[in-house]
Amino acid sequence: MTNSSRREMNLADNKALSEEEIRTRVGLGLFEKYLPLWVAICMIIGIALSLTVPGISEVIDQLQIAGISIPIGICLFLMMYPAMLNVQAEELKKLGKNPKPIILTLVSNWIVAPLVGVALANIFLGSNQQLIVAIILLSSSPCTAMVLVWGYLANGNQEQNIINTSFNTVTIMILYAPIVALLTGISSIPIDRWLLVISVTVFIGAPLVFGVVSKRVLTDWRGVEWFNEKYKPTVGKIGLVALLVTLIVLFSLNGKVMMENPDLLILVSIPLLLGFLIVVVYNLLITRMAALAYQEGVITVIIGSSSHFEIAIATAISMYGVGSIAALGTTMGLFWEVPIMLGIVYLARYLHKKKFWQGEPM
Prior knowledge:
Layout: H1 3-26, H2 30-33, H3 35-52, H4 56-62, E1 64-65, E2 68-69, H5 70-84, H6 89-92, H7 100-124, H8 129-139, H9 147-153, H10 158-186, H11 193-222, H12 224-260, H13 262-289, H14 294-305, H15 309-320, H16 325-353
Antiparallel strand pairs: 1-2
């Protein structure tokens, strides 16, 4: 068999694998496709509640343990748990086969994006420490959930997508708290670092452990096919519902603050949007310079440019409270990320037609 024939067979296998991964692991449907619309609707509902139901923020804010909101904590756990079911320990062993895309993503996630975020925050947000912390929390948290959806829409390499998301889940546990603490220290912002560690443990560690254990138990009990085709899609939809409920709660708590301080929404949006632009352009250029193929390059761009708004929101709430400016800032990160990531998908497809990426597919 010639090398060319062998390469064609491998590409066909990879394509089949990607389609299977799409069907069983992503479960994209009408609900997910129109997520930006649902997000906007939930924001409107939340703001309407804050204006029409007096005292709603006080009632919800009283439901807390050790400074962590119980209803928000439950919703955030349900948001995080489905992502943890995508952790593939066996996939992590494949990192050595083609480490270039993984290395580029790690550099973007843990060096470029955090530095760009803290620099822009300090330039545009002045002395508003909570908004600066919100930008740091968002820029220092690579996504481990929705990137599976974006990667599917872009027709990227799904195996790389899963490897990256699995590896990011591990690195967040190790790097998130130290990097946030370092960047807030550089910005001379005092934060409760112990509470930061607790937030990472509760909102990432607990769902991760529960995800790994439940996956092992359920696959042994009902089989892999049932787990992938029935359980994961159902849990994924519950996670998205929890996300939307969280948005309603957050905007009901922050609605009054938003209406009284619309300038803050514009103010925090400036470094958020500029940060996205800079990091996306960086990732596009670096993947082209690295001679990646489209399938690998687009996944690197998507994951390297995304942020884990769930953990950012959870950490902001833990440190500053449910109705805080910091929580509002991280929520605006979600508001902008969804349409921007969809825009990246369409931009990548366009660039692919223009043969922007020149490398050979894996």
